[in-house]
Amino acid sequence: MNFLLLHLFMPSLLCRPSAEAFFEEEDYQSLHFQLPDSGDNLGQKCLQYSQFFCLTGTWFTRQQSNRPSRNQDFYVFLRLVRENYRKYNWFSFDERDQGQCCRFQTEVYMQHGQPKGLSPSQYFNSTVDFAPSQPKSLNFIGARFEPSMCANIISRVGFGRGRIQINGVHPGYIYLFPVIDSHTVHFFTYRHVTEELTFDWFKRNIVCRDQPWICQTQT
Q: What CATH number is attached to the domain comprising 3?
């Protein structure tokens, strides 16, 4: 939902509580994005490279195959991500890389892809597949409560398979995205955030504002 910065004039609108439960799911897969947020440590790093989003990887809880790890996996994935990280805003948060490539990205694969039985290409392709043929639901929110706004500021989101997991949220209060420009803010009701913050919405309003080619090719 896109609105002008109503909280400057109507703070009571943002302080309306509602209700939601926390869930856990054994079979869980989540494509994670970091939002540029000056009030969050990783968000500050993301803000150096994008005003919209930073891709951080895909997380799994279950083994995806019985494929054994191979010595060349690291180098194969390194080549893949080095050639493509800018296209997908998959920037490194390792200070030694200075936002470029590739310590952070390869560490994510070696910790969350290879041990789950995924080849470098399988993990990479599953992470950068934004096409609607692979339906994804909101299943992760990382946020911080901002008392001055009576709102939960979303710093991280994840989409995929499995029930939603929520961290750092003050129960009952509205969700806000960090302000992307000086005119609008995206907000979502606490009770209906999973219905309002869909992957399709996120792709059109966040991802493709920074990388328009994704909506032009992955439709």
A: 3.90.730.10
